[in-house]
Amino acid sequence: MPKTAAQCTVLVVEDDPDQAALADLRVSMAGYNVRLAHTRREMFTDLITKPTPDAVLLDVMLPDGDGFQILAGMRRHPKFALIPVIMLTAKTEAEDIQRGLALGADAYVTKPYSKDVLADTLRQVLRHA
Q1: Residue 65 forms beta bridges with which residues?
Q2: What DSSP character marks residue 53?
Q3: Separation CA 38–CA 46 (nearest Å)
Q4: What pairs with residue 13 in β-bridges?
């Protein structure tokens, strides 16, 4: 039986404090537990030292790494390869979306986004109602 939202943890990786707070609020309002990371380094520290999250919301533009490269690295690493990743970004060009999906993103949400779009995307990726 799939987990409920309340049993799932989402790691939000967003460097902008306002966007991080908004994502935290919207993911929490959808019923999920949230952990925050603001850099690539914080994200990998979290992934290595804490229980594996059920999903990662990954901003494409981080101060210490390109989200596409981070995603590609995650997909090559056995410990991180199966974690669902939702790209969360202001990059709305078709090429960017295709690139993210081709690299293994499970979904691609563009900013600005509504709470419903984010909640629906999380439900679809995590396969629960």
Answers
A1: 62
A2: P
A3: 11
A4: 37, 58
pLDDT value for 128: 64
Residue 93 sits in which domain range?
5-126
Domains identified in the chain, total number: 1
CATH code (residue 35): 3.40.50.2300
What is the distance between the alpha carbons of residues 62 and 53, in angstroms, rounded to a whole number?
A: 20
54-108 pLDDT, tens digit each: 999 999 999 999 999 999 999 999 999 999 999 998 888 889 999 999 999 999 9
* pLDDT at residue number 22: 95
Contacts of 2 (CB under 8 A, 6+ apart): 126, 127, 128
